[in-house]
Design a protein that fits this description.
Stress_Response_Assoc, SH3 type barrels
């Protein structure tokens, strides 16, 4: 299969916008490939991706044209998953077969999709699609715990040694020298006996008072720790067994 000659009557769709089955624009027409023998158009490429950097093949027979653009019965995601084939102006037999195999089945139902009628593909053949379940794993956020800070008052006894001073009375007696000045200046005896001296003694006593001082500061915060957990679950998978006298691949 080769790229179509631009003189072929497909000029109407040249560079036309392409819309998927949901009506969303997915790109523009790139090239049309025709069968080398019949010269009938078989595939059309669609420029997709950033700035149309990727061209993806779509069966020409599945498309419909209107002045608004070219419409295809596939979703954008389904078209993007089509076989990745180089757009070099020629398709090999193997490349054609990969495209027909991909587009001959409806991705949503497992039945035949659009009538592609590609070479080597029997559009009326019965098909069976096997399915399997796969685990879909995600994460959710939930509370793992709460922390509360509160203060309590605890009473305890403290003993502190405080140095104190006190005065004590000291009495010293000594005889007066008869020749001393005190002996010569001695007065008369106080007949009333009223002479006295008063000595005041002092002492220190502990005084207890209290003051409040800061002793500890607690800071709290949160941090995210990355961890890995392994999850498991049972999944079901369909397998297709072939029964009968005919062997797979046998021609009748």
């Amino acid at each position: 299969m080769t790229m179509v000659n631009r003189n072929f009557d497909v000029d109407l769709i040249e560079n036309a916008d392409v819309y998927d089955s949901e009506g969303a624009k997915i790109g523009s027409v790139g090239q049309v490939y025709v069968d080398a023998q019949t010269q009938e158009p078989e595939f059309v490429t669609v420029n997709m991706g950033l700035f149309g950097a990727k061209e993806t093949f779509i069966p020409f027979g599945a498309t419909s044209y209107s002045p608004g653009g070219l419409r295809v019965p596939f979703t954008k995601a389904y078209i993007k998953d089509a076989p990745n084939i180089d757009v070099d102006g020629h398709l090999s037999v193997e490349e054609e077969q990969r495209l027909w195999d991909y587009y001959s089945t409806d991705p949503s139902t497992g039945r035949h999709g659009v009538d592609t009628d590609g070479p080597g593909v029997d559009a009326d053949a019965d098909k069976m699609v096997a399915h399997e379940e796969r685990l879909k794993v995600g994460t959710e956020q939930r509370e793992a715990g709460q922390v509360r800070l509160h203060k309590r008052i605890r009473t305890e006894n403290q003993s502190v040694e405080v140095p104190v001073q006190r005065e004590e009375l000291v009495v010293e007696r000594e005889k007066v020298d008869p020749n001393s000045a005190e002996a010569r200046s001695a007065g008369k005896i106080d007949e009333a006996g009223r002479q006295e001296e008063v000595v005041t003694l002092h002492e220190e006593r502990p005084v207890v008072d209290k003051e409040t001082v800061a002793t500890e500061k607690v800071n709290i915060g949160k941090r995210t720790v990355q961890d890995t957990e392994t999850v498991s679950g049972e999944v079901r998978k369909e397998e297709i067994d072939v029964e009968g006298d005919a062997k797979p691949g046998a021609k009748h």
